[in-house]
Amino acid sequence: MASYSYQSSSSSGGGSDSAFQQADVNRDGRVDINEFRNFL
């Protein structure tokens, strides 16, 4: 099963950080395919 990691950049506006945190339900630092599907 694929999972996706995300590392924020200091230049980001914060919107992507918030979206990632919402999608990463189990707070493991990765969004797996099920978390991604549920987020959409």
Automatic annotation (TrEMBL):
Keywords recorded for this protein, A-Z: Calcium
EF-hand domain ranges (all copies): 11-40
Chain spans, region Disordered: 1-27
Keyword Calcium attributed: yes
A Pfam family that the UniProt record links to this protein: EF-hand_5
SUPFAM superfamilies membership: EF-hand (SSF47473)
The keyword Acetylation belongs to this UniProt entry's keyword annotation: no
Molecular function GO terms recorded: calcium ion binding
Composition skew (Low complexity), residue ranges: 1-23
InterPro entries in UniProt: EF-hand-dom_pair, EF_Hand_1_Ca_BS, EF_hand_dom
Name the UniProt record assigns to this protein: EF-hand domain-containing protein
UniProt organism field: Rotaria magnacalcarata
